[in-house]
Specification:
The complex is a heterodimer of chains A (136) and B (132). Chain A is α+β, with helices and mostly antiparallel strands. Chain A has helices spanning 41-51, 57-61, 63-76, 79-90, 97-112, 120-126, 128-132; strands at residues 5-10, 13-18, 29-39. Chain A has a two-stranded antiparallel ribbon with strand order 1-2. The radius of gyration of chain A is 19 Å and the shape is globular. Chain B is α+β, with helices and mostly antiparallel strands and 132 residues long. Chain B is built from 5 helices and 3 strands; from the N terminus they run βββααααα. In chain B, strands 1-2 form a two-stranded antiparallel ribbon. In chain B, strand 1 (7-11) and strand 2 form a beta hairpin. Chain B has helices at 42-54, 67-78, 80-91, 98-117, 122-131, and strands at residues 7-11, 14-18, 32-41. The chains are: A alpha+beta (136), B alpha+beta (132). Chains A and B meet through strand 1, strand 3, helix 1, helix 3 and helix 4 of A and strand 1, strand 3, helix 1, helix 2 and helix 3 of B.
């Protein structure tokens, strides 16, 4: 049975991913359901922690794949599973290999989804640029 | 802490906003937006409605303008694997059983609600008329 792919965006990055509920589902499509959902970096960390046992170095290096993985996993899994992953990730013992991996994963998520840079105009309004006079 | 985050969505052409379950009671800031579109069958939607009714949501309240919001919220909260699992379970229900009769009513209700919220066919007729 063909796997249905769908498209989406995560933080504006386009991605394609397999739809879990259409995997081997023979019932005919009658409508499209769309959603735009806010995610925190913690949410994304939990999602990637959840799927991390199945990922290799090449997967971690492939940004487009990771965007699709985030979207596909958020849609496929229920919230309880992701929440359990979040709590598990938060509870790792400092110094352990798991802790090192959690720290690495957090850095990777911040590389994938860097915070929006503050634009010069906003800096001026905030008084930051005026005081230091630095060139942005 | 209550959060003001809501998610936007649509079933067919019907737009709704819903509470994304993963943001309830969280105070971590929103960092990114995830936007996706998912193809749904009548059986997928019925499975979501079944989860609602099975969880105690009154059948008679499953109507009108709240329906798309409820279904979106449920699909998001339960996840695609769970919806698929329930759809497969429902496919094996005997139509003659009590459960089968409830399912038939629910399926009919979902079909009516879907017809009511999905893209009207009117514009298509206009396009045909223009082309002719």
């Amino acid at each position: 049975m063909a796997v249905t792919m769908t498209s989406g965006t995560v933080a504006g990055h386009a991605c394609r991913f397999a739809v879990a509920l259409r995997d081997g589902n023979p019932t005919p499509v009658v409508t499209q359901m769309s959603m735009t959902v806010p995610l925190s970096l913690e949410d994304i960390e939990a999602v990637l922690w959840f799927v991390s046992p199945g990922l290799d170095d090449a997967d971690w290096a492939d940004e487009e794949y990771l965007h699709g993985l985030v979207a596909g996993t958020v849609l496929a899994e229920n919230f309880t599973a992701i929440e359990a992953a979040r709590l598990q990730m938060a509870a790792v013992t400092p110094g352990s290999d798991e802790y090192e991996f959690a720290q690495w994963l957090r850095r990777r998520v911040r590389q994938l989804y860097p915070p929006e840079p503050v634009r010069p105009r906003e800096r001026e309004l905030a008084g930051v640029g005026a005081r230091s006079g630095e060139v942005v | 802490m209550a959060t003001a985050f809501r998610a936007d969505g649509a079933v067919g052409a019907h737009r709704v906003s819903f509470i994304p379950v993963h943001r309830e009671g969280k105070d971590t800031p929103e960092a990114v937006r995830l936007a996706v579109s998912v193809p749904m069958s009548l059986d997928d939607l019925t499975a979501a409605a079944w989860i609602l009714v099975d969880g105690g949501y009154p059948f008679d309240a499953l109507s009108g303008p709240d329906f798309p919001e409820l279904v979106l919220e449920t699909v998001f909260a339960e996840g695609g694997f769970r919806i698929d699992e329930v759809r497969e379970e429902l496919a094996t229900v005997s139509p003659a059983s009590m459960q089968g009769q409830v399912l038939a009513l629910l399926r009919q209700r979902v079909r009516e609600l879907l017809d009511a919220v999905c893209a009207p066919r009117q514009p298509q007729r206009e396009l045909v008329a223009v082309g002719a």
